[in-house]
């Protein structure tokens, strides 16, 4: 295969999206459309990935910098041919692939097959086409009597017979660099829009007797472009079906696929069951034999084997094997939960490590703490970690018992095997195996209430 340079076109206005956000930054399955396309280019081992930007380009730059993508500015939007010409200095001497920032659904298998088709047949230029029952809005592929590619006609330029053609141009194309450079120099903007169409390069090269290929894809939905919110929802639905099918084929039970959202980077182990209302995002990893959901919202979290998560939110955390989370628990970033741990209803954990076999059953806040193994933390316990200026860390030793409605005023250390009496406010360290009682002595006032009752 020749050396490959990939261009991604993302300079357009995207007015139909009706958004302050750049069109290609709208997400499909939790990932910006442009990032989907960049990932494809990088999976193809492109020598260089170049994004042509223009309108609201400052919104795109952070993502492009993060993904190490070169940037070329098309200050004035004069068509796709003009956009590609802006990146001419990157063409090199191999092949140039053109992708679109608003066409995020094509898969790597199709692109690999397309590149191999182009290379094996020594085409000067190739494109991906497909057949649509309703091709409205797409450029049509016109073939000659022998069935070979002849030219592309845009819908606005098509005559009545050409409008009946159902084979359409996806826009994704591949050129020998030298052929592309020659074709771009010959472009003219003598059309209804006064723009330089990249598609006209194909007609020029064909007229020069160069071989042109049209690779017909049997997956038309994967080639759809996204121009408005309705198409964005269609793209979401399509990619969700692809992702969910992959997990089902790998041994995951998904009770109601239509009520489940799974990001493309999520991994799930065999014999795990996903219940409705679950949203799995980012680089989440879930082990085998888990019960996830209903209504679990999990992002960038590592979950071990045999874990249960119900009606809970987990963000940038990890959960060890055989632990139970929820219902209605909240693991905030940097929470590390050990094995066989119980994090119960309305428990919030933040930036804390919870040791194996510990139980935090309900209505408790654990923040900026290290909790040991086999600890029991009662109902209503609060780790008071913030003094109004700084966060402080508390440590609870193994086999400790923290009684209900206790406050641990950080920083404080509770020794191994220590007990905290219910209702205590702990401001000093508690040595191992001590009982700490920190509450006012009860005093009863005889006949006190009769003074205030009628």
From TrEMBL:
Positions that bind acetyl-CoA: 385-386, 422, 439
Molecular function in Gene Ontology: glucosamine-1-phosphate N-acetyltransferase activity; UDP-N-acetylglucosamine diphosphorylase activity
Cofactor(s) listed: Mg(2+)
Binding site for Mg(2+): 102, 227
Binding site for UDP-N-acetyl-alpha-D-glucosamine: 9-12, 23, 74, 79-80, 100-102, 139, 154, 169, 227, 332, 350, 365, 376
Localization per Swiss-Prot or TrEMBL: Cytoplasm
Chain ranges of the MobA-like NTP transferase domain: 7-123
Record-listed E.C. numbers: 2.7.7.23, 2.3.1.157
Region of interest (Pyrophosphorylase), ranges: 1-229
Keywords: Acyltransferase, Cell shape, Cell wall biogenesis/degradation, Cytoplasm, Magnesium, Metal-binding, Multifunctional enzyme, Nucleotidyltransferase, Peptidoglycan synthesis, Repeat, Transferase
Stretches for region N-acetyltransferase: 251-454
Catalysed transformations (reactions): N-acetyl-alpha-D-glucosamine 1-phosphate + UTP + H(+) = UDP-N-acetyl-alpha-D-glucosamine + diphosphate; alpha-D-glucosamine 1-phosphate + acetyl-CoA = N-acetyl-alpha-D-glucosamine 1-phosphate + CoA + H(+)
Top EC category: transferase
InterPro entries assigned: Bifunctional_GlmU (IPR005882), GlmU-like (IPR050065), GlmU_C_LbH (IPR038009), GMPPB_C (IPR056729), Hexapep (IPR001451), Hexapep_transf_CS (IPR018357), MobA-like_NTP_Trfase (IPR025877), Nucleotide-diphossugar_trans (IPR029044)
Record text on subunit structure and interactions: Homotrimer.
Chain's role: Catalyzes the last two sequential reactions in the de novo biosynthetic pathway for UDP-N-acetylglucosamine (UDP-GlcNAc). The C-terminal domain catalyzes the transfer of acetyl group from acetyl coenzyme A to glucosamine-1-phosphate (GlcN-1-P) to produce N-acetylglucosamine-1-phosphate (GlcNAc-1-P), which is converted into UDP-GlcNAc by the transfer of uridine 5-monophosphate (from uridine 5-triphosphate), a reaction catalyzed by the N-terminal domain.
Family: In the C-terminal section; belongs to the transferase hexapeptide repeat family. In the N-terminal section; belongs to the N-acetylglucosamine-1-phosphate uridyltransferase family.
Identification of the protein by name: Bifunctional protein GlmU
Species this protein is from: Fusibacter paucivorans
Record lineage: Bacteria, Bacillati, Bacillota, Clostridia, Eubacteriales
Gene name tied to this protein: glmU
